[in-house]
Design goal:
two-stranded antiparallel ribbon; elongated; Ribonucleotide Reductase Protein R1, domain 1; Fumarase C, Chain A, domain 2; two-stranded parallel ribbon; 3 domains; 484 residues; Fumarase C, Chain B, domain 1; mainly alpha
Length: 484
């Protein structure tokens, strides 16, 4: 084994580092997660050095083969990476293993580069490699929502404003609302890739590489769009990390809203949903309980993910250019939030598929509470009554019904005409449940044929995501790298 200096930077120092400080400042305990990215970036840098004449073709080949072997050797021994007693960080770990494999040649790989550019590159690769499978998971959840929407057909439910029953909508219309959210989230993730997809390699510590390296070689090898444009920005910028965490927060917020509604709808007071037993728990004290633990945990996860975004925001606030050790603290939040987001997405699709909607109970909830009041006012508008006056007339009729204990459709024509001469026999057909749905006959409305059109369009958009991202999974790290 080739003897190594204690630290990658120890030449200038006379005193050994304080033992506690040394352990405290190390990052291998968490940045071991970047092993795949560090190996890929190191291979790319080796190719750039070969083109610059630093390595011969044979030396470059030896380096590349050794780096690939490290990935193979440690793919099932990642705990040994995390617990390595010598390595200060993942960059040091790879250098140590490389030098064990090829001797002093391994030390030449650090020619023309700095750990500042290495970590900036590794983090970009890490986030990019996790965005694509996450988009695939969003698409999978969207497919589960679409399948439920197709099964629901023309089933109806109350829509709420201010948590009060407002108007009836198709159950499919409600489910499609979440599909739209997920499609936007997927586009945000794709936007995040577009902005981070530039290669910092060749930026050096702060001012750029000191050798005439062709930066486009590494960028092309790692499937980046191009090299970064400014070395100071490349080595110190972490806005791509913050943007990713903000998108994860948005995804978690949408999941939390879904979780809140399902939690409410599963209560005896609503009774709209039967929770799947495979995704529920019971009470250790009350034998009758079936608790919505999954949806409650989904609601809670947004706090952890948003907390990661807030952490990075505060870390970046006021940092002078360029690299500062503070930036090391951006890694753990992104690792933790990414893991939580992927695990949350993993359970939401099968949970959604297993939900059973009590459509009869939902329909019954649409029969009372004057959910057809807007349709009734619209009926008067078609009779030439200004909407403000129509609103007032129907409001008076509602108050009359409340006193009488009935619904608008239960009133006689004579009773209706005390609120306006415009009422006629066709009023009753205009305020049925079906007519109330179909009067919302606009793009994005809950009219039955509009929802069928929206469902077909959403299926096409979701399928496009599945076709592009559905085969990428986090269980196949090399496949994720290849697809990036």
């Amino acid at each position: 084994m080739t003897e190594q200096p204690a630290k990658m930077w120890s030449g200038r120092f006379r005193a050994a580092p304080d033992p506690f400080f040394d352990q405290w400042q190390r990052s291998i305990s968490f940045d071991w997660l970047l092993l795949w990215e560090e190996l890929a970036a190191s291979r790319a840098h080796a190719l750039a050095l070969s083109a610059a004449g630093v390595f011969t073709a044979d030396e470059c080949d030896r380096i590349v083969r050794a780096l690939k072997a490290i990935g193979t050797d440690y793919s099932t021994k990642l705990d040994q990476v995390r617990d390595d007693p010598q390595a200060e960080d993942i960059h040091h770990f790879v250098e140590l293993r490389l030098t064990e494999a090829v001797g002093p040649l391994g030390l030449k790989l650090h020619t023309g580069r700095s750990r500042n550019e290495q970590i900036a590159t590794d983090l970009r690769l890490y986030i990019r490699n996790r965005i694509e499978p996450l988009v695939g998971q969003l698409a999978e959840w969207a497919q589960a929502l679409l399948a439920q929407a197709k099964t629901a057909g023309d089933a109806v439910m109350p829509a709420y404003t201010h948590l009060q029953r407002a108007e009836p909508v198709l159950v499919a219309h409600w489910l499609l609302a979440y599909v739209e959210m997920l499609l936007r989230d997927a586009s945000r993730l794709e936007d995040c890739i577009a902005r981070l997809n530039y290669c910092p390699l060749g930026s050096g510590a702060v001012a750029g590489a000191t050798l005439p390296i062709d930066r486009s070689i590494a960028a092309r090898e790692l499937n980046f769009i191009a090299p970064t444009a400014n070395s100071m920005d490349a080595t110190s910028g972490r806005d791509f990390v913050l943007e990713y965490l903000q998108v994860l927060t948005q995804i978690a917020l949408h999941a939390s809203r879904f979780g809140e509604e399902i939690t409410l709808f599963a209560t005896a007071e609503f009774g709209f949903v039967d929770l799947p037993e495979a995704f529920s728990t019971g009470s250790s004290a009350m034998p009758q309980k079936k608790n919505p633990d999954l949806t409650e945990l989904v609601r809670a996860k947004v706090g952890r993910i948003h907390g990661a975004a807030e952490t990075v925001t505060l870390l970046l606030k006021g940092l002078p250019l360029a690299y500062n050790k503070d930036l090391q603290e951006t890694q753990e939040p992104v690792f933790a939030a990414s893991a939580e987001a992927h695990k949350m997405m993993r359970v939401l699709a099968p949970f959604t598929s297993a939900l059973v909607f009590r459509t009869a109970r939902m329909r019954a909830a649409c029969a009372t509470g004057f959910l057809n009041a807007m349709a009734a006012a619209t009926y008067l508008v078609h009779k030439g009554v200004p909407f403000r006056k129509a609103h007032e007339k129907i409001g008076n009729a509602v108050r009359y019904c409340l006193d009488k204990g009935c619904e608008l459709g239960d009133l006689s024509l004579d009773e209706l005409r005390q609120f306006g001469d415009e009422f006629a026999d066709d009023f009753f057909a205009a305020v049925t449940l079906e007519a109330t749905l179909d009067c919302h006959d606009v793009i994005g409305g809950t009219a039955r044929h509009r929802v069928r059109e929206a469902l077909a369009a959403a299926e096409q958009r979701v399928q496009a995501l599945v076709d592009r991202y559905g085969s990428v999974t986090l269980d196949q790290p090399e496949a994720a790298h290849a697809r990036a």
